[in-house]
Structure formats: structure tokens, C-alpha cells
Amino acid sequence: MEPVLEARAVSKRFPGVLALDGVSLALRPGEVHALVGENGAGKSTLIKVFTGVYRPDGGELRYQGDPAVFGTPMEAQRAGISTIYQEVNLVPMMSVARNLLLGREPRGRFGVIDAAAMHGQAQRVLAGYGVATDVRRPLRTLGVGAQQMVALARAVSVDARVVIMDEPTSSLEPREVETLFGVIRRLRDAGIAVMYVSHRLDELYRVCDQVTVLRDGRVAHSGPLAEVERLRLISLMLGRDLNEVRTGGLTRFSRTRHRTTTLAPSPPELAASAGPATLEGSAVARGPATSAAGPAVSARSATPEGQTASEGPAEAARSATALGLAGSEGLVSSAGFAGASADLAASARRAAPSEIAASERPVGSEGPAVASEGPAASLEGPVASSEGSAVASERSAEPAGPATPPVHAASEGAVGVAGSGASVTGGASADPPLESDGLGSDGLGSDGLGSDGLGVVQMGVGVGAPVVEARGLTRRHVLDGVDVAIAPGEVVGLGGLLGAGRTETAKAIVGALPLDGGQVLVAGRPLRKGTKAAIRAGVSLLPEDRKAEGIIPTLSVRENIALAALPSLGTAGVVSDAKIDRVVEIFMRRLRIKAASPHQLVSELSGGNQQKVLLARWLAVRPKVLLLDEPTRGIDVGAKAEVQALIDELAEEGLGVLLISSDLEELVEGADRILVLREGAVVGELSGEEVTEERIMATIAEHPAADQPPVERKTVEQAAVERKTAEQAAVDEAAVGRAGEERGDG
Ligand SMILES: Nc1ncnc2c1ncn2[C@@H]1O[C@H](COP(=O)(O)OP(=O)(O)OP(=O)(O)O)[C@@H](O)[C@H]1O
Predict the structure, then answer these.
(1) What is the ipTM of this complex?
(2) Among 247, 409, 425, 492, which residue's beta carbon has the most beta carbons within 10 A?
(3) Is the CB of 198 under 6 A from ligand 1?
């Protein structure tokens, strides 16, 4: 059969990278064609060439048998090529019906929109996609999956001949995935060609007939999918030998680490000793509040000489210096990061690469180490005062003094990066003792990054005592008395459907979600309100929405990675460029971050590679507790295994991890214990042998009303707000309608 859409020897070059290199691909009517490849292989670029976002530099596009040139996505769409992206690109404030039919609304005699007809039509169309909702509601009031379905219905209902789906299931529930697959089959039966891009191999095998594998911008293979078994597909994607893939396996969580962790309560006395001990570096640097010779430090990783970390005052002082934490001013606050995104952008602009490169210079002797002005401050500002360091050394020799709460004293070296507004991406403490904080066997030196382990020192709490304990987290309609405790070295998984409150629990722990009730304790001490306190206490969140909440597009890959770890990469008040380079190099290699160079702007990376950069940022910081929300979403199979191995290594070193993943296999293999959430409440806890995919599913299913996420439960106030929003939406529609048309929605 003649292809409906075809690329012939298409090339596309970006500065420094040949993203597509003579790619040929034919898409035939009624076939579902998988497009796969590692992050950065060129999939999105090819889609963008097909849909008129980019003009190819070489080669030819053919559509329905003729050469085709699409000047804009709108032109491609008008011709019958629809695209559904990961992010729903509809208008949230507009009604569901309007979003579905924008530009094609049924009109009455005088050209006026026939609202009743529009609503009826929308209701019928959406029913076919498993969405039963009041179509007059603003789109944003729907769950993510339902929004995605509206986007899909819209894309399909515009007389498409080709539908391109880019990671369409990334925010769908299992049930919605089934609906999507049903829709895909219907499209196929109707003779529509579907191009399906996904890193989830299981899905490909379920719905696709053909496959094209891209590697480094070239076609590595193309043909019927059934002829390529899974491991071979992976080896084709990664360009690795089949045997290597076979022995390496697909998930890299080592099951050996798993242990039964009995959580003990964390009385303040325990915590009191835990604080200073744990924080031998920065706690001491913070002044007389804490003892440098705390009893409970257990630095499990060896120094290059094979000795465990010294716990003495001198060591602590040295650590403090190396951390770049000078007295009480050695604080890199998250405050600047927590501002609006405009601030972020402004700060980022201020932090010109040349200034960052100049960070090797000696730092000022008196100013506050790093002002809390955002990324620029943290990058360009002096990191530590040399005088301050000396002071810190002296202080460190003193016996324990009056109490600064250890938790907070613990971590004043933290750098946090928060997203816009209240959505905080978390931050991290820069306070792990330095003797033990290397990066695996990658050979980093002892001062700042030891040669062993991943750099998280066992907390000074008794084994089994939680490092983080959330009690009764409550927020109306969102969380309902959630208790979570995470011990050092433990990976706690959160299971549940979308809207069950997993992300909200993580956000609540780092103070990014205002609560009606509940409390978070770190090492037994209540955490103060707000995100800064969590950041300082060494509790970091890798957010789910990394684009909106973390990546700073105007900075390079190197700067984005080093941002949070910066204070720990200094020695004697000087941030060592060489050390930054090494850390960046290690993470780029281990996570297979594909970039022309570390100095490439992060915004020029493929989506998956941007995610890896952000992940590298938080891993490089070596927090005490890392909350990972969908850490491998959008990340290719090769890097996924590496991410899992890293999480494992970090847990081995004493890091506490909260793992949220909709990939059940990842959850089961990675977590020691799983809390299952449902409607914002913990409805089950699985540990040991109970940790299986079946048990998680069963626990979720045991509880009725499974398809009513808490956000859907409306109160009178909520309904009023929604009514208002709907009214406002009507006012907004004219404006957003124009915007929609510009984007090609109409
Ligand atoms: N605007 C741009 N400027 C410079 N380089 C770019 C740009 N867009 C993409 N690239 C580069 O082109 C290559 C292909 O990227 P592309 O986004 O097509 O990958 P992908 O296969 O879609 O990856 P992912 O699975 O991560 O989405 C990458 O090396 C990427 O860094």
C-alpha cells in the first residue's frame, strides 16, 4: 500500500548536532507505527519535521503521494496530520465542549454558536472516549487523563489521516490507557495511520504493527514489530550488544538491599543527638549550637585510603570549609529560587556562563556567602568567606553549645530550586560529611567528593528511626490524615492511582502544599512551615512536572546540574571548576545525558535529557531524603536502569527515598515498603513478600469509588468557585480562542 506520509532521506541540523541524518520512514494507512529510540535520538525532531514545526535541511517529505511542505503546524493539521503531545495543549479555562470543537462549533442561523448543539455533540463524542462529564465545565476541572482524552478526541475528530502520538499514556491511568488503545484500534480500522512514540515497550507490543528505531539521528531498523523481540529492540535503541543488554537486565534495582525496616519512634532525645552527629560538616560550621564530636555519625563509605570518616572537630571544620559554609552566613537560601518563574528567568540571565566559569576565584572575606537571590546569586556570588571558614573552624572545636535546632542548623548550606509560586521543587542540604560522599567508583577525590559510595552518610539516628516522619497530613479534598515515615536507607514507595494524593503527599512533606493539619518531623524535630525549612533540613523533592518546576532553560547543562550542589563543591571558600566539571561529567556519563557539550543550553536538549539533568541535580546534592516523583518518566530504557541503580546506591549509603512511580514494576523492584493511597488517605501498607504488583492493584481495588479522585468531590464552596470560573471562562474565551487559532487549534 502507498504510504500516506513519508520522509525520504530527511536531515535536520541544529548547532553542533545533526539531529536527523538521512532518515527515511513510510507511514501507511491503517498501520500503527512505533517510533522509538533513546532520549535525544531524534524522535521529536522527526515529528516536528512531519508537522511543519521544522523545515528539513535535506531530503523530502511526501504526503498522500506528493511532495509536501508544511509551513506551520496549522497547515499540517489542516491537511490531516494531527499531533497529540505529552502535555495537553488545550485551553484550561475554556469549557470542555469548546476545547473539543474550537473552530468547528455548530452555528445557528446568524453565525451564532449553537450552545445546545455544541454541548450535545461534545457529550456524544467524549462518551466514545470514556469521558462522561458535564462538557460545560472548564477543561481544567477535569483530571489529567480526561483532559488528555479531550485532546485526543479533538485531534482525531478533525478529519485526520495521520495521528501522531508523543508519549500519549504518560499521564493516563491504566483504565484510560485501555480506552486509548481502543481508540487507536478504531483509528486503524478506519484506515488512519498512527505514529506512536513511547518509551514504554509493553505498550508498543500491544498496539503497534510496525517499528522504526532511531539512533543518533539515523534509522537503526525499520520493519514489522512482531519480528523484533524486546531485548533486540533495546539493543537496537541503545546500540549495545544483545548479550550486554541480556546480562544487564532491564531494571537495575538490586534486590539485595531490601530489608525489613521496623520504624521506631523518634523521640526528641534521639533526634537531639542525631542532629549534630549527622551534620558534622555544616552543623559545626553553623556555630556553637552543635557538637562536632557527636557520637552517632556513621560514615559508611570509606575515604580513598579506605578509612572511614573522621568525626573529630578538625575534620568537621575541614568539612565545613570544604562545603563553603562560612559561619551563619554560609547560607544559600532557597528563597530566591522560590519566586515566580519570571524571577528565575531574570536570575538565570544574570548568571552568564562566564561568571560561572569565574567561580574559581577567591571569594570575599566578609559578605554573606551567598545571598538569597536565586540561581544567579548562588552561581556567581562568593560561596564562602575565608574568614568565615576560619571562624567556623574555631567554633567547631568548641563543645556543644546551646541549641540551635539541629535539623535546621544541620543544613544551612542548602541550595534549593523552587518552581514558580508555591510549587517548590525542593532543595537540598549540602551538609553530608565530606569524607564519604563520593560518587561510586568514579574516582572523585576525597575533598568534597570521596571516592567511594554516593555520598550520603548514615544519619546519626538509631537504625530504624525515621529520618522523616509525616503525621496526619491533611488538606481538604486532597489529603486525609496521611502518615508516612522514611528511615535512613529505606525506599518507601507510594502506590495509587492518579489523583490519589501521591504527589500531594510529597509536596506536603517539603512544605509546598499548605495543610489544614498534620506535622512533618525530620530526625524527630518538627519542621517549620514553608519550603525553606525542608530544604535546609536536607529533604528534597524531584517534582513530577520538571519542565515547569525545575529546569532553568537559560542555563547550560553544567549549570543546571551544579546549581544545587555548588556549596559542597567548594574548598577553602573557592568553588572548584574542576570539581564541578568532574561531577557534571560523571552524571552526564552515568545517566547518558546526550548533549553537544556540558555548556549547551539545557533548553536545547531533548525532553528526556532535560529530565535527566534535573535528576542529576538532586542526586549530586546528596540530600538526606529524596522524594522522587516519577523519576523515570520520559526517560529511555538505558538511562532508566541507571537511574534505578543510582537510587539503589544512594539508599545503600543511607539516603531515605520516597518513590512515586506509576510504573508498577519500578515500584515493586525499588521499594522496601509500599504505602497505597486512595482518595488522599493511606489505605494499605505492603512490605516484604507482600510487595508485588498484584497486591498493589488489589489494595487499590479493595476500596470502592476507585474512579472518583478526591479532587472531584465537590463542596458547596468549590462549586461556587467553579461557577465563577466558568463565567470568567466565557469572558476569556474570545481572547484564548484567538490564541488557540494562532497555535493551530482551530
Ligand atoms: N532547538 C534545538 N537546538 C539544539 N539542539 C536541539 C534542539 N532540539 C533538539 N536538539 C537536539 O537534537 C537531538 C534530537 O533531539 P530530539 O528532541 O529529537 O530527541 P528525542 O528522540 O525526541 O528524545 P526524547 O526521548 O528525550 O524526547 C538531541 O541531541 C537534541 O539535543
Answers:
(1) 0.98
(2) 425
(3) no
